[in-house]
Amino acid sequence: MRIDISVLVTDADDHVLLVHPGTGTRWRLPAATHTDTHPLGQIPTRALAAETDLHRPVTTILTIDHTPAADDDADGEEHVVLVCDGGRLTSTEREAAAVPDSATTVTKVRWIPFGFVGDYVTDTEETRIHTAYHAQTHGTLPLRLGAGASS
Question: Regarding the domain delimited by 2-138, which CATH topology (the fold level of the hierarchy) does it fall under?
Answer without folding.
Answer: Nucleoside Triphosphate Pyrophosphohydrolase (3.90.79)
